[in-house]
């Protein structure tokens, strides 16, 4: 598990990041707080995932594309209009956009057999 803010690899059961102090985003994992007794989920073969499948936490293909376009359009508009100034546009494109795109295009476990 990695820190959502700075990317530092966390030890199992850590309640907050040792580098930046960020707390883990349990909702993103779909589980509760870490169980120290639980073995580390590190399967050598990755489960079948798809960036196009809809799930409880992600959009389907259309939703993902729309969300991506929205994020990009807002970023371009911020640059063009400089509504929040250059810093705001930089923040959007450098921080919010990658974060949003990673969330939008998060792979999910496929329900059916792989093609
Ligand atoms: Zn951190």
Structure notes:
The chain is mainly alpha-helical and 115 residues long. The chain has 2 domains: 1-36, no CATH class; 48-109. Helices cover 39% and strands 3% of the residues. It has helices spanning 26-29, 61-81, 85-104; strands at 49-50, 108-109. It has a two-stranded antiparallel sheet. α2 packs antiparallel against α3. The site of zinc ion (ZN) has 8 residues, from loops.
Strand content: under 5%
Helix content: 25-40%
Q: Structural class, from helix and strand content?
A: mainly alpha
Q: What's the end-to-end separation, in Å? A: 29 Å
Tell me the total number of β-strands.
Answer: 2
Q: What is the ordering of alpha helices and beta strands?
A: HEHHE
Which value, in Å, is the CA radius of gyration? 17 Å
Largest sheet: 2 strands, antiparallel
Shape: flat
Hetero groups in this structure are:
zinc ion
Structural domain count: 2
**Order of the strands making up the biggest sheet:** 1-2
Could you report the average pLDDT, rounded to the nearest whole number? 76
Please, how many helices? 3
Poorly predicted runs: none
